[in-house]
Each structure stands twice: as structure tokens, then as C-alpha cells.
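Ticket #4471: structure output looks truncated?

Reporter: J.K.
Steps to reproduce: submitted the chain below (221 residues) through the standard prediction queue, then opened the result file.
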Amino acid sequence: MATTDTYEPTERTVPTRSRDRASYDRALVHSILDEAYVCHLGFVRDGAPVVLPTLYGRIGDRLYVHGSTGSRPLRMAGSGAEAPGLPVCLTVTHVDGLVLAKSAFHHSINYRSVVVHGTAHQVTDPEEARTALDALVDHVVPGRAADSRPANAKELAATAVLRLDLDEVSAKVRTGGPNDDPEDATLPYWSGVVPVHRTYGPPIPAEDLAPSTALPTYLTT
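Returned output as attached by the reporter:
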């Protein structure tokens, strides 16, 4: 895995278009991954592409992807030290703004994305699996893993985790306004950026929650 401040570009991580938007900075890659909730995991099954949305968590330069023991990716990855693993492509994207140009051709979005190529392996070590599942919970709400009942033996038996090392990875970012052609500058159409922000509503307690149960501090900050 990477031990420097940047990931090494490869043939698969160098984009064919807009190469100036690509970055291999580890801190940027990690920040984009840590801010999202859902990744899309792509692989090939029976000669056809499959892309699944799923939860994930990061520990250092390693991603953990959640799944059931009967899911397709887990079956294809195999288990045990001799299992070949599953070639995958994992992606995460944030939409930061809608870019409205004076020409339809130059409309775009401002975004931050990460693409990871590699071979996913099923986690078979029980302690690593527990650590990974805690990371998955804390990825969604930091501090929640310690503030909930840990998975019991039956739940662990029904849950599987894939491990994917961040070795072959890149980020891509677009910022700024529209790139209109100079000859379109005088056209009578509004142009600019509509920012997109993620917001959270107030927590809604479960119907069976005891009235005396206090709202956790990690949900109030």
C-alpha cells in the first residue's frame, strides 16, 4: 500500500480527458472518501458488468465494503488465504454545483470523485471483521459504534466484509464557472453556478425509544 503523500499513477488511473483535473494526493483522496456514505462497486459476472451501491468504511489505505454472506461479490471473491479475490472498480462522487453555461454543450457540474481499481478479498479474520464493521458504522455517524450493541455471533455469521487496498487510485475534481466560448459571451442567457450543499434535519426518535433516552452528543454537534 501507499507510503508517500501521493499514489502512483497507472494506466488505469490516468484519465483520457481533462487530465488536469486528476489528482493522486492521498489526503485529497481520503477526504473525498470520508465525506461520502455510499460507494458503487463494479465487477464482471458471467461476462456482463454489475455495479452495486453499498456502504463502506476506510481504515488508513484500506477500504471495507459491507455485504451479506450470500451476496454475489462475496461468493465470487472466495474465502481463505488462497482465494483469488474479485477484480473490482469502486467509485465515490460528490456533486458540489450545477454549472449552467450559455450554450447547452458547455453545461456541467462541479464535483469531486475517487476511482479505485484493485482486487477485493473477503475478510476472514474475526478481529479484522469486527474492526471493519465498527469502521463501517462510524463512517456513517462517527462515535456510533461505541454507542450501540456490538454484533452477536449470529449476526456476524450472516455478515461478510470485502477488503480493498488503496493502491491503484485517483481523484478527479472540477471547480469554477462555465467554460463558454468567447463568441457566446453576449448571448442573453443567465450563466453561472448553482451550489449544491448537503444538509441534515433534526433527529427523529424511534417510536419505541424510551422518553428518558438522551440525544447523543455526536448528533447535536
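Triage note (M.O.): checked the attachment and the full C-alpha cell line is present. Residues 126-140 form the longest helix (15 residues).
Status: closed, working as intended.
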